[in-house]
Amino acid sequence: MIKNFVLPLTAAAVLVSSVSAYAVEPLRVAADPVPHAEILAYVQKIDPDLNLKVIEIPSGVNSNELLAHGDIDANYFQHRPYLATQEKALGVKFAVAAEVHIEPLGIYSSKYKHYSQLPDKAKVAIPNNETNLSRGLYLLQDQGLITLKPDLKGLATPLDIIGNPKHLKILEIESPQIPRALPDVDLAVINGNFALEAGLDPAKDALGLEKAKGNPYANILVTSQKLAEDPRILRLAKDLESPQVAEFIQQKYHGSVLPVSAAKS
């Protein structure tokens, strides 16, 4: 009788130990260095009891693949339209846990101060992934540089350009490489995080920026379906969407990065 009684207790102890160990395991979050990892570092400061392990992802590493394979618990670097293309490519459905900030896409030049100075057949570097390519083309249109087909359904491509008075040459380049290509082109359409990493100040240096209000490209915290209700994910999501983090973003990035709450106002 004693032996039969001890075994269930031992099994229960192992189970409790396992649950406790799981509860204190660090939440592994992959992030771009700027501004995502910086924002997560601030979260660690205001919520020290949340055990985060922030993994800065180098260029060329797909953290959605890492998430799909269980090598990380969440990532924070992308917007919903890009996530949709990744889910299709990987055959995996992820979960969006929080919407945090917007990095307005910008147009930069190291040669010209105004679009009027652009020569005919000017070279324009633009992100080559389909969502940010479309996003960049719409920004060029908003700045009066090109005209796209009206009533486009789906993402825009260079084939949809119907007006190009300066005969701009669109060069599709990997997003992280565009800041390095800036001296070799006339204009460059650069994602906000890569502009910041390159020492550019989007709010001051960009010739044109995306509008924040109504912008569908909010950067999001993404996790697996399995972890969508994990208490650690829910806590991190609440922190990232908090007024304290919104204030931190506004004070640190001075309009180059905008909290989602500010973009909605």
From TrEMBL:
<dbReference type="Pfam" id="PF03180">
    <property type="entry name" value="Lipoprotein_9"/>
</dbReference>
<keyword id="KW-0449">Lipoprotein</keyword>
<keyword id="KW-0472">Membrane</keyword>
<feature type="signal peptide">
    <location>
        <begin position="1"/>
        <end position="23"/>
    </location>
</feature>
<keyword id="KW-0732">Signal</keyword>
<keyword id="KW-0564">Palmitate</keyword>
<protein>
    <recommendedName>
        <fullName>Lipoprotein</fullName>
    </recommendedName>
</protein>
<comment type="similarity">
    <text>Belongs to the nlpA lipoprotein family.</text>
</comment>
<dbReference type="InterPro" id="IPR004872">
    <property type="entry name" value="Lipoprotein_NlpA"/>
</dbReference>
